[in-house]
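Here is the promised in-class demo. Please do not try to memorize the tokens; focus on the logic of going from shape to residues.
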């Protein structure tokens, strides 16, 4: 029980942070970094998106801007612009994480050497030449291919954070179970490899008032299966508390439900009943609908 949190809010899609990136305004960026530190994040993600125009200049600038006020938390360099990552790696005071390297040869053949030469960690994204894997076996095959290439280049499994990809439960309900099954396989196919994911993707497209309970439930389910870090919002006190192991009641009721020993609903608080019901939706025992908590 417990996990690392990768703070997600230094993201170009955020209105204020996006403006700060464009205008090179350090104040909002540094305030967000300090806030994330105060909440206890383990990594700070810097997400520039595609950053096609000015990424090579922007990513090093953001890295240095953050490190002026927070230099004791490692950074995650998050952009599809490989040159921007290469430019920022020498600026990092602590070994960073490259987010992410896809299981696509034309991507990983360029990016793995960056990790090997710099000593960086990297997120291994289970996205292959044909896109999203269909099941846990395809995830496993992509994982073996990508980690073999990394090991050959000198990157050990302990610096590789496997992301099996989270998809919206209201569109692709079986994919959630596939990811849980993949987590059961991970240490057999990649001993010592780490794990992470963008867990909030599971609730994309779900009514806003239901997103939080889905996110917390799936975070706990994946953590039970061995997931050791999550890209999350540091403002989410429930996630931060789970990360520090502060909600054993949530962990226990979800684990029992996953093991087929769900407690009687009338013996639980309203909050814990919600987690049991949501766990059953994610496992596919209950058909997804916008009213599963009311049933």
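The designed amino acids, position by position:
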């Amino acid at each position: 029980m417990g996990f690392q949190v990768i703070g997600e809010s230094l993201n170009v899609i955020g209105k204020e942070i996006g403006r700060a990136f464009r205008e090179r305004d350090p104040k909002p960026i540094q305030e967000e970094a300090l806030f994330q530190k105060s909440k206890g994040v383990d990594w700070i993600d810097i997400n520039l998106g595609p950053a096609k125009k000015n990424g090579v200049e922007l990513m090093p600038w953001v890295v240095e801007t953050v490190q002026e006020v927070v230099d004791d938390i490692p950074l995650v360099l998050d952009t599809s612009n490989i040159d921007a990552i290469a430019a920022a790696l020498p600026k990092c005071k602590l070994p960073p994480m490259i987010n992410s390297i896809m299981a696509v040869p034309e991507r990983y053949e360029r990016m793995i050497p960056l990790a090997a030469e710099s000593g960086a960690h990297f997120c291994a994204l289970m996205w292959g030449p044909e896109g999203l894997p269909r099941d846990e076996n395809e995830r496993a095959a992509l994982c073996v291919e990508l980690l073999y290439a990394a090991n050959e280049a000198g990157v050990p499994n302990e610096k590789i954070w496997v992301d099996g990809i989270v998809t919206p439960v209201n569109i692709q309900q079986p994919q959630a179970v596939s990811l849980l099954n993949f987590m059961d396989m991970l240490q057999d196919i990649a001993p010592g490899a780490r794990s992470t994911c963008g867990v909030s993707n599971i609730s994309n497209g779900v009514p806003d008032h239901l997103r939080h309970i889905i996110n917390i439930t799936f975070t706990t389910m994946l953590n039970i299966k061995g997931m050791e870090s999550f890209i999350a919002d540091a403002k989410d006190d429930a996630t931060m508390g789970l990360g520090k192991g502060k909600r054993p009641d949530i962990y226990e009721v979800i684990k029992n439900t996953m093991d087929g020993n769900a407690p009687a609903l009338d013996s639980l608080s309203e909050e814990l009943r919600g987690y049991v019901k949501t766990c059953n939706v994610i496992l596919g025992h209950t058909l997804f609908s916008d009213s599963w908590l009311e049933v």
